[in-house]
Amino acid sequence: MTVSVGQRLRDARVAQGFDLNTLVVRTRISERYLKAIESDDRSVFPSGFFYKSFVDQYARALSVDTQEIDGEIDLMLSADAPLPLPGQNGMATRRIPPIVTNRRSLRRRTYASIAATVVVIAGCSGFYEWWRHIQFDTRSNSTVQASSKRESARPAAVPIALSTSAPARTEIAAFPPATQPSAGNKVLLDFMAHEATWLSVSSDGHTVFRGLLEPNQIKTVEGRDFAKLTVGNAGGIEVRLNGRPIGPLGGRGQVRTVVFTQGSFQIVIPTKESD
Fold first, then answer.
1. How many CA atoms lie within 13 A of 183 on its CB side?
2. Region 181-200: what's the mean pLDDT?
3. Which residue of 21, 31, 167, 244 sits 20 to 30 Å from the alpha carbon of 99, by its own alpha carbon?
4. Which CATH superfamily is domain 5-78 in?
């Protein structure tokens, strides 16, 4: 009688004297998914990719040879109909209106923004120079008066040595130094995984990356108008949009679909077909 993959892993766990909680700590996979693996229930996994990845991590945690198991899973998945992508699962997503760019109006807004920026900078510079002049005059008068009093009371000048050393300052950043999109692009995304996280990223409607980011691995994607991200572990990844961190996208193990534009982003919430 052929022993299933789930039964084989369960027998190995029991033989080594481990409970499920021990394997949760070792693999960082929730108990719900581990129970589904042992019972050969693939319906709870977002896709065959996740099922195979979690089984592989489970087997490695028990020092079980994964070569034969991977072959059985590949054969099993090849006989199935294609599973939906993470974040869909048979649910329709809200349609997002296409982003239409009017080059002429965009050029006018750009020129207006540049002109306004120049005016603001010039105004701030003038105010700063005036304020510094007032402060300098005030400090100069106070210094002259104080010096006159000290000179009258002090018999002789005493030289004072000034220290030029300054304490060292160390900055620690999770990301490399922030950069801006290259010429012709408006959207720059930096992804850094804190734990193993699956991503699917498209730029202006074209898929540019789909795969697994290992812990501390960084991926950068650029786009002209917009980019779309589907992540299988929203709590395990940090995202930076045009050099600025945007905060957490969701909880650990949560599937999220997010659309990014130049100055904002939108989490696409799945809805039922009847909505």
1. 0
2. 86
3. 244
4. lambda repressor-like DNA-binding domains (1.10.260.40)
